[in-house]
Model the fold of this input.
Amino acid sequence: MLGLGFLASRADSSLFVYHGPHGVLYLLLYVDDMIIIGCNQLMLRTLINHLAQEFSMKDLGDLHYFLGIEVIRNDKGIFLSQAKYALDLLTRADMVDCKPISTPFVVGSHLIESSTPHCDATQFRSLAGALQYLTLNRPDLS
Done:
């Protein structure tokens, strides 16, 4: 990307910015997923064609979902939501119908040691990681 005139963002190592005479392009790269945005359609198409000559890639069109974030366009702009990600997480944990409580454990209860685990450790780690990702993006949910 640097060879194409993009500058690496100091704030995010996965973000590259191109300032040209006809507009600005932003490219966000995460592993094998990429978002390219800009106001100049010709610049966008030229970049996509150039990248397609260098790399095996597929243009998936307008952005709808990226890294658990849903992108919804309307006449006022773009709305970003993680509602679907959170609902999918609740579904995976079989907790969609759970009621909210002020504390996740009964006050005054004590844990007792058990020889059998109460849950699948792999699923627990996966859910914990997904919750951590969600709360990093949405600290109000912590």
Remarks:
- The two ends are 36 Å apart (CA to CA).
